[in-house]
Design brief:
This protein has about 70 residues and is mainly alpha-helical. It is built from two helices and two strands; from the N terminus they run H-H-E-E. A two-stranded antiparallel sheet has the order 1-2. The radius of gyration is 29 Å and the shape is elongated.
């Protein structure tokens, strides 16, 4: 069993050496599929008061949420 695994490992190594690692005829891409963003116009609207936003917050100071420190 161990010998057959070693044989497979050697054969796979031989296989990867027969192909170029970085072929020159392929253009680099950042995304496989083309991307398109669908955005709507930025229209200012009504927002809730700070007091209502902080009403159910476990902890807050002035008009900010307080969260536990996670980085020491």
């Amino acid at each position: 069993m161990l010998l057959s695994l070693f044989y497979l490992f050697v054969k796979c190594g031989d296989l990867t050496l027969s192909f170029p690692i970085f072929p020159n005829n392929i253009e680099p891409t950042s995304h496989v599929l083309s991307l398109s963003n669908v955005v709507r116009g930025d229209i200012p609207g009504y927002s809730i008061p700070v007091e209502d936003a902080l009403m159910n917050a476990p902890d807050h100071t002035d008009k900010f949420y307080r969260v536990p420190k996670i980085i020491e």
